[in-house]
Write a structure and sequence with these properties.
GO terms for molecular function: pyrroline-5-carboxylate reductase activity. The protein is an alpha/beta fold. It has helices spanning 2-11, 27-37, 45-51, 64-72, 92-98, 131-142, 155-163, 165-182, 187-208, 212-219, 225-235, 238-260, and strands at residues 21-22, 40-41, 54-57, 82-85, 104-109, 119-125, 145-149. The chain folds into 2 domains: 2-156, NAD(P)-binding Rossmann-like Domain (Rossmann fold, 3-Layer(aba) Sandwich); 165-256, ProC C-terminal domain-like fold, CATH 1.10.3730.
């Protein structure tokens, strides 16, 4: 996720590669990012924290505590650093507690389409974050897609919907393409058509402002092909499955947060 966000922001012109320093325990990941996009690499977490005034924390939720405890040992003034966490489920209060309650923290949940400038992100600021911090984070995520500010109690729902949602949509695209292949299309043409169909439908919702149900009704002629297909989706529980997927991902995000507090 960190890679997608940084690359997207650089390509959008919101960040300069010269201003980005990356650190990962997997040095090959940093080398790849540096070679392909011109960012600098830090040799250690200490070097990263002492060099940068904004830290984008993109570790797995289970590793957040270890990373923050190490940062706390550096003696860096927490007020100097803006810490943006994209770790699923990890609350602002738990992050602040790790670094003595003084950190400027913003909890965010972007998604991987930020890599192509089509991301969806939400964030919530901690009590110590400044208005300038909020403006910076909003601008950063807006440069790679859409961004909204929400209360922290809704961040797990954001994780379940837009954070995890691309994975659900990829399965849908694959399934549509499989249907095309089953109906006689080549794999290449079926995937191309399925991808463009999902992209086009999403763009219609975004640009017309019409409710998806109304747009759906506009496609369904009486006794036609679309309503026959929709009837099959309803019969097999497509709508329910999509709702359950978001709810399951939301519950998992909540569980991850509870295990870290």
């Amino acid at each position: 996720m960190g890679r997608a966000l940084v690359i997207g922001a650089i390509e959008a012109g919101n960040l300069s590669a010269n201003d980005v320093v990356a650190y990962d325990i997997e040095t090959s990941a940093v080398e790849k990012l540096a070679n392909e996009h011109g960012v600098s690499g830090a040799a250690s977490l200490r070097e990263l924290v002492t060099t940068c005034d904004t830290i984008l924390l993109c570790t797995k939720p289970g590793d957040v505590g270890e990373v923050l405890r190490e940062i706390a040992t550096f003696g860096t003034d927490p007020n100097r650093i803006l810490l943006i966490s994209v770790a699923a489920g990890v609350t602002i209060s738990s992050i602040e507690n790790f670094i003595f309650n003084h950190a400027r923290v913003i909890r965010a949940m972007p998604n991987t389409p930020a890599l192509v400038g089509k991301g969806a992100a939400a964030f919530t600021p901690g009590s110590n974050a400044t208005q300038e911090d909020v403006q910076f984070v909003s601008s950063l995520f807006a440069s790679v897609g859409k961004v909204v500010e929400v209360p922290e109690k809704l961040m797990d729902a954001v994780t379940g919907l837009s954070g995890s949602g691309p994975g659900f949509v990829y399965i849908m695209i694959e399934a549509l393409a499989d249907g095309g292949v089953a109906s006689g299309l080549t794999r290449e043409k079926a995937l191309e058509l399925a991808t463009q169909t999902v992209l086009g439908a999403a763009t219609m919702v975004a640009e017309t402002g019409l409710h998806p149900a109304l747009l759906k009704d506009m496609v369904c002629s009486p006794g036609g092909t679309t309503i026959a297909g929709i009837a099959a989706l309803e019969e097999h529980g497509f709508r329910h499955a999509a709702i359950q997927a978001v709810e399951a991902a939301t519950k998992r995000s909540i569980a991850l947060g509870q295990s870290k507090d």
